[in-house]
Amino acid sequence: MLGLWSLSALVCASVASAARLTVSIPASPPLLPNPATLPSSAHAVLVGPPGVQYDVPIRRDSSFTFPDLAEASYLLTIHSRDHFFPPLRVDVTNAAEPAQPQTIQAWQTFRGNEWTNKGPHYGTGKGDLHIMVQPSSMKSFYAERTGFSLFSFLKSPMILMALASGVMIFGMPYLMDNMDPETKAEFEEMQKKSPMTGSQGAGAQMQNFDFAGWMAGKGAGAESGSSGGGSKRR
Where would you find the membrane-spanning parts of this chain (predicted)? Predict the structure, then answer.
């Protein structure tokens, strides 16, 4: 009887000292005016030491409950289809006396930072902790089309080239008129030596080439050659 009483007392003490965490989602306008609209697929995951993980679904009252948490440090993440929630660090520590309840604390944590880097404190409880976590932002699955921007339009390489060409076309005559005679003569000499000028001259020669006359002359030369050959044979 004494052994049975000791065993029952030990079980009652362990049950009494088990930590319990409850996470509620309050109304957070304008991101989440009514938490009851959260989909049934929303769930919360509490990850502890290797091999320790708790995954609970959302309840009717828009809350998540983690009963019987052992002593450890956990990462709490809330997964939702339409909202982002901040990750939390949850620490459960045993009391000095076995019969005393465990201490449970929660802080905001930051991904990509050291585990010791804690954010705002969400609360501390003895054996039971009830905290509220609001969504941080909405999830966006579509890229918004940007409107017309004159600055982006002017940054286009084609537009810049067209503007530069327009400045050269309309500004060069004015610049030539305001040049002194010596500078103007040097500029004209440079234009004559420019390879672009030579290519333009070659293009003009090709345009003025009489292809029909060249073909007619070639045909006449061929006929005269054939007639000359016949006279020699005679």
Answer: 158-176
* Cα 117 to Cα 217: distance, rounded to the nearest angstrom: 94
Residue 12 tokens read as 């009652």
pLDDT digits (tens, 9 = 90+) for 2-35: 343 343 433 444 444 579 999 999 999 999 999 9
Q: Residues of 134-151 as b/e, b for ≥16 C-beta within 10 angstroms?
A: ebeeeeeeeeeeeeeeee
Whether the CA torsion 167, 168, 169, 170 is positive or negative: it is positive
SS3 content of the chain, % helix, strand, coil (to 5): 40, 25, 35
Q: For residue 62, what are the contacts with CB-CB under 8 A and spacing of at least 6?
A: 24, 25, 35, 36, 38
Fold of 19-138: Immunoglobulin-like (2.60.40)
Helix (H, G, I), strand (E, B) or coil at 122: strand
CA distances from 99 to 20, 22, 71, 170 (A): 16, 22, 14, 94
